[in-house]
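dumping this here before i forget
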Amino acid sequence: MGRLFNLDSPLMSGLSKVADLIWLNILAFIFCIPVVTIGASITALNYVALKMVRNEDGYVTRAFFKSFKQNFKQATIIWLIMLLIFGVIIGDLVIFTFSTLAFPVWLRIALGVIGILVVFSTMHVFPVLARFENSIKNTFKNSLYMGVLTLPKTVLMIVIWIIPAVVTIYFPQAFPFVIALGISGPVFLCAMLYNKTFKRFEPQEEETADADNWFLEPLEDEAGALREDGGQQDAAVTEQEDEGANEGGKQQ
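structure:
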């Protein structure tokens, strides 16, 4: 019984994670209130949730604000772009539904396909932004790629995000649980799903300065640096060979 309540026991570790998720849910909710900061808030939440899944918890509050600050600009731009895209899609759906004009079937199908692809990308866009350093364009491309690549997991992530709304509507008595874990809970469960997918795109060895600093640098930059170093080493070797040849000529 004593081991059950040990700080390192699975029970206490699980309760600690739940407490952290409740606190993160409060933070995320507060920083979602201005609406324009929803993107940065969800990105920071994904950053901390993935660290919790990998048992790299550290200080969740410090990690949240670290990611919020570092990704604020990109996350806000991505969020506004997503709002615009969803606004256009919803507007088109309203027009197709209530308009007296007859629209071709292919146009409705095309809109449905675009909507599905946008939802697939949305499931991964903020996790990708939280984990990898990249341009906004490539963040969208990689998010869509991961969404299609891991289609069953993407569908499950969509279901996970729908559950809080369904619980709120059909089980009002469970609303306090939705308030406590309605945002952080789905984010944590989704992080458990995309964790292995992300590891496929990460270097085998990562050097981290501290527990919270583990963003990936763009791989093309690293390759460029390696090429530059290699070029400098080749040049040094060539100079040494030339000097050796000159000395040999002088001795002869």
